[in-house]
Amino acid sequence: MPGNVVKKIDEGVTIRQVLVSVYDKRGLENFIPALARQLPGLTIYSTGGTYRAIEKILGSTAGEILVPVARYTGQPEMQGGLVKTLDFKIYLGLLSETYNPDHAQDLKRLRAVPIDMVVANLYPFRLAIQAPEATPEIARANIDIGGPCMIRAAAKNYLRVTPVTDPADYPRIVTELERNDGRIGLHTRFELAAKTFAATAEYDTNIARYLAGKSFSEVAGCYTSE
Fold first, then answer.
1. pLDDT of 25 strictly over 70
2. Do the bridges between strand 183-185 and strand 12-14 make them parallel or antiparallel, or are there none, so unpaired?
3. Angle at CA 1, nearest 5°, toward 109 and 163?
4. Integer Cα distance of 171 and 184 in angstroms
5. How many CA atoms lie within 13 A of 160 on its CB side?
6. pLDDT tens sequence across 168-226
7. Is this model's pTM higher than 0.90 or not?
8. 33: which DSSP letter?
9. 130 class by beta-carbon count within 10 Å (0-12 exposed, 13-18 middle, 19+ buried)
C-alpha cells in the first residue's frame, strides 16, 4: 500500500501556478486573458507552440506572467519537442501534497513551485490514423507521451490540482474562479480528474487497437534498416 494516505486537504484551492501545454489551442484567446484578469500574481509555465500562442495573446504583459518550462526546469526541450515537460521538477510540483512537510521540503530544496492547474490536451492520434496518407510511422509519431503523463499526474492529485483537458471546460473554470475569488473547489477538481482518466484510457485504447490491427510487414515497410 502506498505510504501517502491523505486526510487533510483544502476544499477550495487558490490558483497561482498554471502549466499550459496544448495541441488544440481553441479557446485560449479568451481563457488565458480571463485567467490573467482574475488571478493576481499568476504565473503561466508553457512550452513550444503553446508558449508562442500565449505570448501573442498576452502581448506586452507576457513578460510579467509567462515563463518557458525550459527556463523553470533548467533543461532545454529535446529536438523536435519530444521531451518538454517530463522533468522531476514538474512532477514534484504536480504531485506534492499541501499539508505534507516532506513535500514542502522537497519543493524548497529544488526551488520548485506547487502547480495548481494543468491545461493540456494530446496529439490527435485518432485523427492522424484516419488520414488517407497515414502509415504506422505517422501513427507512431502521433503517440503523445508527456501529455498523458502530465494530465494523469494532475488528475491523481485532484486533492490540490485542477486538470483541464477539454477546451469546452474553459468557461466553467472561468465562472468558478469569478464566483470563488480565484479558487477551484474539490467537486470540480474531482469531476475533471474523472474526465481526464477517461480521456487517457480512450487514448491508449485507440493506440492499442491500431497497433494490434497492423501486421509486422506493414510496420517494417515504413523503414529501411541496416
1. yes
2. antiparallel
3. 60
4. 13
5. 22
6. 999 999 999 999 999 999 999 999 999 999 999 999 999 999 999 999 999 999 998 87
7. yes
8. H
9. exposed
Question: What is the CATH number that goes with domain 12-220?
Answer: 3.40.50.1380
Dihedral angle at the C-alpha atoms of 6, 7, 10, 11, nearest 10 degrees? 110
Per-domain residue ranges for the chain? 12-220
- 66-68 and 43-46 beta bridge pairing: parallel
- Counted residue by residue, the chain has a size of 226
Query: Helix (H, G, I), strand (E, B), or coil: what is residue 136?
Result: helix
Q: E-assigned strands of 39-150? A: 43-46, 66-68, 117-120
Cell numbers standing for residue 7: 486526510
Residue 205 CA to residue 191 CA, distance in Å, equals 21
CA distance 191 to 159: 12
pLDDT tens digits, residue range 59-103? 999 999 999 999 999 887 777 767 778 899 999 999 999 999 999
What is the residue whose three cell numbers read 526541450? 77
Q: What is the DSSP letter of 77?
A: P
CB 44 within 8 A of CB 66: yes
Contact assessment for residue 80 and residue 142, using Cβ atoms and an 8 Å cutoff: no
Sheet with 17-21, edge to edge strand ranges: 66-68, 43-46, 17-21, 117-120, 162-164
